[in-house]
């Protein structure tokens, strides 16, 4: 299973009634400054407050289908952990989130609110990954990486599918890049479906 248009569309169908189809809005003031029509995909209105819910939910639903893991686990300093906890709770799976000790308390509280069990670690990527791997082995939980996970990327790619549906004549798409999961899925889908659209990361 790879990151493909087909798998992104399967994720889109899988996520119906699980996540929001977020609106696209514009701003007259920004349009005047830019000298063109600028549209914004409102992923801040998504479940748990970010696009991360798409990838986490897609991954959790597939893990649930396989029925091989007793729960799910990840490492996160905030948004992905919240999203995974929310997704796991929605299908009745336990969720553990390895959180760096310097993560804001508001992020930790949100993870707990959605039902995630928090395990603190040193604030380094090495510690996050090692702690996550060790606990996954002990608990027999499936690991859902924050961005370097095919099922997560396919889930995030559904943003691209919605953009094409909502604005078929879009000229260019600008994508923010953090870990790269969303950017990978969205840019692949848009370029495969409408190669003339300019993409900017």
From TrEMBL:
Q: Name one GO molecular function term.
A: D-serine ammonia-lyase activity
Key words, A-Z? Lyase, Magnesium, Pyridoxal phosphate
Q: What is its EC number?
A: 4.3.1.17, 4.3.1.18, 5.1.1.18
- Give me the reactions it catalyses: D-serine = pyruvate + NH4(+); L-serine = pyruvate + NH4(+); L-serine = D-serine
The protein's required cofactor(s) are namely: Ca(2+); Mg(2+); Mn(2+); pyridoxal 5'-phosphate
Q: Source organism's superkingdom? A: Eukaryota
List each copy of the Tryptophan synthase beta chain-like PALP domain by range: 19-198
The record's SUPFAM superfamilies line, in alphabetical order, gives: Tryptophan synthase beta subunit-like PLP-dependent enzymes
Q: What is an example of a Pfam family matching this protein?
A: PALP
Functional summary from the UniProt entry: Catalyzes the synthesis of D-serine from L-serine. D-serine is a key coagonist with glutamate at NMDA receptors. Has dehydratase activity towards both L-serine and D-serine.
Annotated family? Belongs to the serine/threonine dehydratase family.
Name the UniProt record assigns to this protein: Serine racemase
Q: Which organism is it from?
A: Heterorhabditis bacteriophora
């Amino acid at each position: 299973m790879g990151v493909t248009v087909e798998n992104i569309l399967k994720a889109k169908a899988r996520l119906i009634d699980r996540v929001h189809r977020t609106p696209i809005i514009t701003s007259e003031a920004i349009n005047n400054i830019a000298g063109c029509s600028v549209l914004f995909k409102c992923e801040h209105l998504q479940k748990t407050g970010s696009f991360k819910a798409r990838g986490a939910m897609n991954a959790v639903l597939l893990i649930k289908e396989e029925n091989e893991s007793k729960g799910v686990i990840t490492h996160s300093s905030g948004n992905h952990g919240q999203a995974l906890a929310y997704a796991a709770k929605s299908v009745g799976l336990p969720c553990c989130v390895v959180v760096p000790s310097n993560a804001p308390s508001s992020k930790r509280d949100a993870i707990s609110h959605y039902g995630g069990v928090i395990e603190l670690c040193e604030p380094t990527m090495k510690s996050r990954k090692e702690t996550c791997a060790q606990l996954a082995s002990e608990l027999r939980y499936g690991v859902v990486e924050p961005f370097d996970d095919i099922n997560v990327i396919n889930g995030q790619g559904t943003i691209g599918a919605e953009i094409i549906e909502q604005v078929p004549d879009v000229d260019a798409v600008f994508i923010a890049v953090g870990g790269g999961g969303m950017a990978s899925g969205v840019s692949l889908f848009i370029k495969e479906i409408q190669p003339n659209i300019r993409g900017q990361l």
